[in-house]
């Protein structure tokens, strides 16, 4: 069982999602053009995603017996490892886009708890 989550302020996380939305189409275009700038932008987006997870805090997952990021999507650790390992693949972009989308939904869900 995961220890109780506290409500969060989604406004704290909006800049991360806005930045991703602002660059995602450019990254995808660079991938289709096989432009190396895609890798640079992906690297920045990965760092921002890591920062987003850290900013959301951690909670104890008693089933796993370890601390996990509060905002981490399902299988997020493994999926982010794939993105980092396969950054030159367009599939890494697709996976990172999915991680941002799922995390944004989780932030929205957890922010409702405070109302």
TrEMBL record:
Question: Pfam families annotated for this entry?
Answer: YpoC
Boundaries of each YpoC-like domain copy? 12-115
Q: Which InterPro entries match?
A: YpoC
Listed name of the protein: YpoC family protein
The species this protein belongs to is Sporosarcina soli
